[in-house]
Design goal:
GCN5-like_dom, Aminopeptidase, 9 helices, 8-stranded mixed sheet, 2 domains, GNAT_dom, alpha+beta
Length: 298
């Protein structure tokens, strides 16, 4: 077992490269913040870092599966639910050992796959657990071009979101003013999982996109602390006008322009969002959860 304070070392990076899609949120989260601690057992890791809370990011690699880090349209990966039983057994044993150390560090965990949640549940009870389906956009290192997902109706190709239209819609904002953080929090469907301070930090540190109507922010999207796209929201009075699609496509464009693979998480019950992201070109990866363990976990 390894327990230390570190950045993402070459050794850790090689382990993350075994399953690049599983590693996406880990690389994103620690791109701008240090790793407080690392726990390792075999091919399993728990990496700890601080944002709104001290989070433990879980990772367990299958050595026999190797996919390139720069995910391309033809790339494949082994879904977590399809991993060989022998690996899940080994991963379960490794993670069980690691969680004994986690008890004295934090009750918060991210990047938790279903089999990992079972290991956590065997060690204690959940105060809360948020399940999502992760999807990724099979595209990195360059901006959308002919032959990719863009088509004649795409806002960044036609400029259709620029300037006023008959309904009073202005263009896409280059970014959202961090001063709008309270407004976004007040209108969020996930208030219990976020805060004004968290949203302000995200607006200051990463990409965002919004649409104004008569000077009011009516649609927006930004990113989470693992650099996943999220917070997609349209005020109820402005829905069914394609605004969410315009904002999300703009976020994808901005992420691809940085040479990064866009990814996001959708709640299973949110069928409207699932249809939207699949329409744009996102592909399914795996089910993941965020959890907080109940005392006396700590």
């Amino acid at each position: 077992m390894l327990f230390l304070r570190a950045m993402i070392t070459e050794e850790i990076s090689r382990l993350l490269e075994i399953d690049p899609l599983q590693a996406l949120p880990i690389r994103g989260f620690f791109a701008t913040r240090p790793i407080r601690h690392v726990l390792r057992q075999g091919n399993s890791l728990v990496l700890f870092g601080k944002s709104d809370y001290l989070w433990g990011y879980l990772y367990s690699a299958e050595p026999a599966v190797s996919t390139p880090w720069s995910v391309s349209p033809g790339a494949t990966t082994t879904p977590a639910t399809a991993l060989p039983e022998t690996h899940q057994k080994a991963g379960k044993e490794e993670l069980t050992e690691l969680l004994r150390e986690c008890r004295r560090i934090t009750p918060y965990f991210a990047n938790v796959q279903p089999w990992m949640a079972n290991v956590l549940a065997a060690s204690g009870s959940f105060e809360w657990k948020m399940d999502t389906r992760r999807l990724y956009f099979p595209f990195s290192s360059r901006e959308p071009a002919s032959g990719d997902i863009v088509h004649q109706s795409d806002p960044w190709k036609t400029g259709s979101w620029q300037g006023e239209d008959p309904s009073g819609l202005t263009g896409l904002l280059p970014s959202i003013d961090p001063g709008k953080a309270r407004f976004i929090q007040d209108n969020s469907d996930y208030k219990e999982y976020t805060s004004t301070e968290y949203i302000q930090e995200r607006l200051e540190e990463d990409i965002s996109s919004g649409i104004l109507r008569q000077g009011e922010l009516v649609a927006w999207g930004l990113t989470h602390d693992d650099r996943s796209l999220g917070f997609l929201h349209v005020l109820s009075s402005c829905r069914r006008q394609g605004l969410a699609e315009g904002v999300l496509r703009d976020l994808v464009r901005k992420r691809c322009a940085r040479g990064e693979t866009p990814f996001l998480n959708v709640e299973p019950r949110n069928q409207a969002s699932m249809k939207l992201v699949e329409k744009i070109g996102f592909l399914p990866d795996r089910t993941v959860s965020w959890v907080k363990m109940n005392p006396p976990w700590e």
